[in-house]
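Exercise 7b. Backbone tokens:
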């Protein structure tokens, strides 16, 4: 049984913990999109470590981690991560496979990212400045450079780099970047990358033939998806379930279950509408107690109430079987909690689905349902029945509003601080 674990809101739902916790039940963990814009915090022997590109399965013995063709790879970022893992005593040899078809983030993609943001001015996206967008732009513009190109014929690579650099020089006024140092650096990166590179699709097909199980790990989230997110305030890849087939070369029938990760409230980093956004004391309280600061950039995250319209939309787009509800403990001690069940439009009409037009979303006012809070802590609770009754009621209401069960409820950052509902889909998947 292969499953997908992906984000249902605007990212940072705590996918890392869920993936990490489920990994021992799988033989491969595969990333299908995004790049080192993702940030995923794990603890290794008491030391905090933030993974960006490498799936967290790397920390578990007997698991192969795959970086699929849909991912954009910055070799410098990848080597840094591998070096940091080695310094922590984690053996990565033979445990990582990078698709030969993955596109490379070139050194100047970051510069283009920053420039494009500056040019947008007030309409900036609030990107992570990692060069993700420009790398995907080159990919769809059919001038991108793939890892197999870096490892292949040197003359052909020289020509591709020349063309790519001249496209860049046309974008940046009066720029005359020389392609040769870019080419030389790529060759050096290629030498170090070579042992990790292979055919990811073929590898995964063989894992399945042998009866092995695969976890497809999403980065970012549904509302940041290039097609289904709050465009243009999105990332440049398909973070939704559809990205798995294209980003790894696996058939749709290989995805047997989909687990959506949702925070018990909502956060967003970067620009774009966030209908349930809070300001002032309550926002600060959520931010501090949830440690809502970007794992990649350290930026403070915008915080708001749980938006059931958003998560219901994610359930539909991804065909979610269940939710993993995270950070419930962050709401501990609040006198009341709110859930957005729909929106009222500027003209007074109601909306119970996410509008495609951002202006409508930005001007929509959330309709809230208020539930009693709980004064007893949920922190560290490991069974649903042991949660305070009001917290149980909150979780049940989210299940009703989203239409899917909360199979996992996370009550703290530690792996042990988790409830896995015994009668849930997830319990069957990992049995
Ligand atoms: P980019 O992916 O760096 O181009 O950024 C595009 C948008 O996606 C920005 O709003 C970023 O803040 C957001 N984003 C990208 N990666 C993540 C992530 O891992 N968590 C949350 N937001 C992200």
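Sequence design result:
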């Amino acid at each position: 049984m292969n499953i997908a674990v992906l984000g249902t809101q605007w990212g940072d739902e705590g996918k890392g913990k869920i993936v990490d916790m489920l990994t021992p039940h799988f033989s491969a963990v595969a990333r299908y999109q995004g790049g080192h814009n993702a940030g995923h915090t794990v603890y290794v022997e008491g030391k905090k470590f933030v993974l960006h590109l490498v799936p967290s399965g790397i920390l578990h013995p007997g698991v192969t981690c795959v970086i699929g063709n849909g991912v954009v790879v910055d070799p410098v970022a990848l080597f840094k991560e591998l070096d940091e893992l080695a310094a922590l005593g984690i053996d990565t040899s033979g445990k990582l496979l990078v698709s030969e078809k993955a596109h490379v983030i070139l050194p100047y993609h970051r510069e283009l990212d920053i420039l494009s943001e500056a040019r947008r001015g007030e309409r900036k996206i609030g990107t992570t400045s990692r060069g993700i967008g420009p790398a995907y732009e080159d990919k769809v513009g059919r001038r991108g450079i793939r890892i197999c190109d870096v490892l292949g014929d040197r003359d052909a690579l020289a020509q591709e780099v020349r063309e790519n650099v001249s496209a860049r020089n046309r974008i940046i006024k009066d720029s005359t970047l020389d392609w040769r140092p870019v080419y030389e650096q790529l060759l050096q990166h290629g030498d170090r990358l070579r042992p990790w590179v292979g055919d990811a699709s073929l590898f995964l097909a063989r894992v399945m033939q042998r009866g092995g199980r695969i976890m497809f790990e999403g980065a970012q989230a549904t509302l940041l998806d290039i097609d289904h997110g709050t465009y243009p305030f999105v990332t440049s890849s398909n973070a939704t379930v559809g990205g798995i087939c294209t980003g790894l070369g696996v058939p749709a029938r290989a995805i047997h279950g989909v687990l959506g990760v949702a925070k018990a409230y909502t956060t967003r980093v970067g620009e774009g509408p966030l209908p349930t956004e809070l300001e002032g004391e309550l926002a600060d309280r959520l931010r501090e107690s949830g440690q809502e600061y970007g794992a990649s950039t350290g930026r403070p995250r915008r915080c708001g109430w749980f938006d059931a319209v958003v998560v219901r939309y994610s359930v539909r787009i991804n065909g979610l079987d269940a939710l993993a509800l995270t950070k419930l403990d962050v709401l501990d001690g609040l006198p009341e909690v709110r859930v957005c069940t729909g929106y009222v439009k500027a003209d007074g009409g109601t909306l119970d689905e996410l509008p495609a037009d951002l202006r409508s979303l930005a001007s929509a006012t959330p309709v809230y349902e208020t539930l009693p809070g709980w004064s007893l802590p949920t922190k560290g609770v490991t069974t649903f029945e042991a949660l305070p009754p009001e917290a149980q009621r909150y979780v049940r209401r989210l299940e009703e509003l989203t239409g899917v069960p909360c199979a996992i409820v996370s009550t703290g950052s530690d792996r042990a601080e988790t409830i896995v509902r015994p009668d849930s889909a997830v319990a069957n998947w990992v049995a």
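Instructor comment: The chain has 14 helices and 20 strands. Residues 11-12, 37-39, 125-128, 130, 132-133, 219-220, 224, 233, 235-236, 269-270 surround inosinic acid (CB under 6 Å).
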